[in-house]
Amino acid sequence: xxxxxxxxxxxxxxxxxxxxxxxxxxxxxxxxxxxxxxxxxxxxxxxxxxxxxxxxxxxxxxxxxxxxxxxxxxxxxxxxxxxxxxxxxxxxxxxxxxxxxxxxxxxxxxxxxxxxxxxxxxxxxxxxxxxxxxxxxxxxxxxxxxxxxxxxxxxxxxxxxxxxxxxxxxxxxxxxxxxxxxxxxxxxxxxxxxxxxxxxxxxxxxxxxxxxxxxxxxxxxxxxxxxxxxxxxxxxxxxxxxxxxxxxxxxxxxxxxxxxxxxxxxxxxxxxxxxxxxxxxxxxxxxxxxxxxxxxxxxxxxxxxxxxxxxxxxxxxxxxxxxxxxxxxxxxxxxxxxxxxxxxxxxxxxxxxxxxxxxxxxxxxxxxxxxxxxxxxxxxxxxxxxxxxxxxxxxxxxxxxxxxxxxxxxxxxxxxxxxxxxxxxxxxxxxxxxxxxxxxxxxxxxxxxxxxxxxxxxxxxxxxxxxxxxxxxxxxxxxxxxxxxxxxxxxxxxxxxxxxxxxxxxxxxxxxxxxxxxxxxxxxxxxxxxxx
Length: 532
What we know:
Blueprint: H1 2-25, E1 29-34, E2 39-42, E3 49-51, H2 78-86, E4 91-94, E5 118-120, E6 125-127, H3 133-143, E7 146-150, H4 158-169, H5 175-182, E8 193-196, H6 211-228, E9 233-237, H7 248-259, E10 265-272, H8 279-283, H9 286-304, E11 316-324, H10 346-361, E12 366-371, E13 381-383, E14 388-390, H11 394-403, E15 407-409, E16 412-414, E17 417-418, E18 423-426, E19 429-431, E20 437-438, E21 440-447, E22 450-457, E23 464-470, E24 475-476, E25 480-484, E26 502-504, E27 511-512, E28 514-519, E29 523-530
Helix pairs in contact: 4-5, 4-6, 6-7, 7-9, 9-10, 10-11
């Protein structure tokens, strides 16, 4: 009797699958098939990183505001810190960005009264240097994150980079280690991740270099840094210039060829926007990130065949700047103390969820990602003197960081698609036509029998009813359901009004090999349950 019952259940599941296939032909139904044996790679916690740059109000008036009634004894905004902790920030990049290419770290250490204010040339503001290495490391400890420093490869020297590593990572003895102790920090910070400059292929970068000159300087800088602290991981500046007449593939190819025995990651950057107010074009922009990932993956695979890396891992990709950024791009909005203050809406949040899906779907090669930036400056958190609010983009990032861990799965998604035309994605960059963009954008992770599905329904008007099929084992127990949505794709949050946020929905009953869920239009949904 038991065998007959099992066969009957499987027959019914097959009939349901056949019905769903017929319905999908009419565009009314979709399928997501999960096979826990079809793995991509381990999701690295560092894809949930963020970025703190001395730009606008990210530091001063953002995370750091001494004298404010909202700040603690270290000058850190307590309300901001609580929101930051909610993001589970795994890795925080510092201090730039364009800022770092003319930043001299010695200006930001020592007694506050002796620090020299400097002209900040990247973003046209005064840098007081009241916040520097040691203040940042206090903040890192407070939020439970890990630091990721970028050295000045523009106006800086290889010796200056070496001395910063000595200050941070050497326990005692040489001058800069003893200087840290003199400044009141007895133990070294042992900072593991260091970037060899920022966007050095960009004509806008102070100290801009061509690829060959960058590689020469990076190689010698890396040599001194590793001799000082052998265990550090180094990140090369990959291309950030995809404008017309640029050749990002040539830059990345040169960097990987010349530094394949030196670095551990290659950094890539992407910003996207919706200047033409075309929703469907905009929602497809994370696929541009995925295409660029595939191209650089191929370059890495080619170079690793002749690399002399000993027991070190192959080179990985670090998307250490990514976000939506296009409104605050006028000459006035990119300079001074209120620079780059984007106000985000629901469609921006869906694009951010799409980026995170891309990182998970490419978990074998993308091992680091840093949303730019943490507070006020193209950021998920926005402050005033009286308080703060969480922008729409905060909530998908929070759901991913708190739930999507373990092994990335290669899921099958069968749903309707759409095409775009050629369009601008932002920063003067044009993408080619995107064909067969799926309305459902999906990633999946699996750990200790727990499955997490992250699904963006890109469709503006239609809910998509979906059969979710388990190919190995069976669903076991109810699924938790979290949704980020709003009344309209242009809905924004503001002080006192967080209309777009994560909402926990009614649990989904899950038994057997098939469950059905209807994903609402213009939504991000996270489903979490068990497989036995």
